[in-house]
Amino acid sequence: MRRYYFSQVLLGQSWARDVLVTVSGQGIISDIARGPRPDGGTIDRSQGGRGGMDDATGNRGGEEGRVADPGNRGAELERVDGIVVPGMANAHSHAFQRAMAGDTEYRASARDSFWTWRRAMYALANRIEPEDLQILATQLFVEMLKRGYTTVAEFHYLHRRTDGQPYAGANALWQAIGAAAASAGIGLTFLPTLYQTSDFGGQPLKPEQARFASDTDQFLREVEAHMKSAAGQRVGVAFHSLRAVPLEELRRAAQRLHELDPTMPLHIHVAEQLLEVQACVRATGRRPIELLLESGVLSRHWCLVHATHATAREITGIAASAAAVCVSITTEANLGDGFFDTARFVGAQGRLCVGSDSQCTVSPAEELRWLEYQQRLRKRRRAVLASSAEPHVGTRLWRDAALHGAEAIGQPAGVIEVGRRADWLVLDAGHPALLGAAPDTALDHLLFAGGEAAIRDVMVAGRWVIKDGRHAGDPELAPRFAALMRRLAAA
């Protein structure tokens, strides 16, 4: 058991001062007490202002040392100076695409789109080996931690060798993601992805999609085996899209997965592109979100990724089903996808979360800032996504996305309360971006005043994984990542 003293912290729906938080050895918050700092508390500065033992990351303990806690039989209480907020859940990530960030920002034709970008993505996907993926994912996950993501859902559809043949024994690509998450110290929900067809109507996969191929029954057996062997991971499943998984196969797989785990997170790309919506209508007479709503499969354990071209009726239907929607504003903008009607969905009490998707930006603050800015530009007014209950846009967006994102990926995080995992960020109140900020405006500064630079320390499951903006693995990881990127660029 470890105890922490917070001078300022976002607890649930409100800000609080002078809070004692107890964390179990398993990294779960077991008690929260409010009140003044314990009488008689002293700060141990014998370590030059940085008290405590080295933790599992090789970093020193609390920024301001440790305070003797007379209420806990002499146990040490780590004082955490700064503004503490829950870590963010990244509800949608394709780790291998980190290697192409910045490499497709040029005009190849007068009508560049998602579909032309996809050709470059396929070319990269067919060159990545398991060792490459582990380096890429570790680098990416460390970047996520430094920017405020403390857990991630990896929507993973690289299943086979580069020649399209299955791996013998354990899937080396699946294992690479788990090893990367463990090395970085980030919480992981692994979403192996069913991918079977190239388009509606059961069109066969194209040669460049061979690495993605999965037979439903074999896939389900592999998922079940992975659930038993993947210690420390939350395992869910993704269906790439309705163009890649026929609805009948999706229903059958979803039923079997529900039998394996009734709370399993299930994710799907849907209605991201107008061409996708139009092709679905031609093939089925229904729009893709209509098909999902009519199928009866949706529940609060589902997450619809993008839903960019959802109609007003579909948005209401998604909210009523309790399924979450994950938007990735920076990727959707990068690919020219369009605008999700966030204000309508939030107004319908929909559960909204964010993800980094193609990794063109790895920043929850930027995702949430542009979530609000899109609505301001469309409606020509300010503070669109605030509410009467929470007038601060930054607080509402961060608090809700953290909670809904954690729920959507099946992680016991997203809020600082008893029974949740100790995933939190410490914002440096003395950073120029936060100077003068009252506690209830701290997240407004984080989103709208460059405050993500003030993220100083990050804890995941009771372990400090980032201290003073650094990760213990940085010195070893940096040259490995540099060598990989140079090799990929040369090829």
Task: Name a few traits of the molecule.
Urease, subunit C, domain 1; 491 residues; 14 helices; eight-stranded mixed beta sheet; single chain; alpha/beta; nine-stranded parallel beta sheet; TIM Barrel
Give a description of the structure.
By secondary structure, the protein is an alpha/beta fold. It is built from 14 helices and 17 strands. It folds into 2 domains: 134 residues, Urease, subunit C, domain 1; 319 residues, TIM Barrel (Alpha-Beta Barrel). The longest helix is centred in the N-terminal third of the chain and has 18 residues.
Helix and strand arrangement:
Elements: E1 2-11, E2 14-23, E3 29-34, E4 66-68, E5 76-86, E6 88-93, H1 114-125, H2 130-147, E7 149-156, H3 172-184, E8 187-194, H4 216-229, E9 234-235, E10 237-239, H5 247-260, E11 266-270, H6 274-284, H7 288-295, E12 302-306, H8 312-321, E13 324-327, H9 329-334, H10 342-347, E14 351-354, H11 364-379, H12 393-408, E15 424-427, H13 442-448, E16 455-460, E17 463-466, H14 474-490
Parallel strand pairs: 1-5, 6-7, 7-8, 8-9, 8-10, 10-11, 11-12, 12-13, 13-14
Antiparallel strand pairs: 1-2, 2-3, 4-5, 5-15, 15-16, 16-17
Helix pairs in contact: 2-3, 2-14, 4-5, 11-12, 12-13
CATH architectural category of the largest domain = Alpha-Beta Barrel
The main sheet comes to: 9 strands, parallel
Terminal CA distance:
50 Å
In helices, the fraction of residues equals 25-40%
**Oligomeric description of these chains:** single chain
Q: How many β-strand runs?
A: 17
Number of domains: 2
SS-based structural class? alpha/beta
Shape: globular
**CATH superfamily annotation of the largest domain:** Metal-dependent hydrolases
User: What is the average of the pLDDT values?
Assistant: 91
